[in-house]
Amino acid sequence: MEAVSELLTLRTDYAAKVDADLELVEKDRERVRAEITALQDQLHTLEGNHTLLLSMREALSGHSPAACPEPGPDGAATTGSSPAAPLVSDGVPHTGDGAARDCGRGDGAPEAGKKAPTLRDLVADELKRRGEPCSSHDVATALARAHPGRRIKEPAMRHALEALVAQGRVGRSKRGSRVFYFSAGMGRG
Question: Coiled-coil ranges per the record (predicted)?
Fold first, then answer.
């Protein structure tokens, strides 16, 4: 009988401990929820301030902040609206669809009447030309040779390749730890 009594006491003690732990966890959850709400409020305020400042900058400079991004720390253009905005590798600002914009700086803008091909178009054309799967490094190297006036960085190249994969214009295959890309019309290589 003594063993049963000890078992019941142990079970009761554990149940009390679990209840106490549940209470502490619930208090922590409420505290974290309150912190998240406060941070979301701060973020909302900061986003409003950011939008206001961008519109003020646009009014003062005459350029749309999205159309004419400021150079980032590595000299590549960024929109300034997001730290995770994709870098523009060729120094020419691009819209979300990859089209180049001329901000009146004259730094590599195409001749009048001609539109420079987008990085995505160059990549897709290079993959069609090759006719076999290749890595992003291979494509970047080929494009750097073919277009010496454009600065093509590998992160931008990978971003363009992944965008083309998402559009269905390019396919992707893995061989071990390496990723290879191919023109969607080729099939897998």
Answer: 15-49
Q: For residue 47, which amino acid is it?
A: E
pLDDT at 25: 94
Is 140's pLDDT higher than 60? yes
Question: Which of 73, 57, 64 is CA-nearest to residue 95?
Answer: 64
**Domain contains 132:** yes
Give the pairing type, strands 70-71 and 178-183.
Answer: unpaired
Q: How would residue 97 be classed by pLDDT, with cut points 50, 70 and 90?
A: very low
Amino acid letter at 62?
Answer: G
125 pLDDT more than 70: yes
Distance CA 127, CA 123 (A): 6
3-class SS of residue 100: strand
Query: Is 60 exceeded by the pLDDT of residue 123?
Result: yes
User: For residue 67, is it within any domain?
Assistant: no
Residue 75 domain-assigned (yes or no): no
Q: Cβ atoms within 10 A of the Cβ of 133, count? A: 20
119 in Cβ contact with 97 (< 8 Å): no
Strand-pairing partners, residue 88, are 77
**Number of domains forming the structure of the chain:** 2
Q: For residue 117, which phi and psi values (nearest 5 degrees)?
A: -65, 145
Task: Provide the domain limits for residue 179.
Answer: 119-183
122 with 143: CB under 8 angstroms?
yes
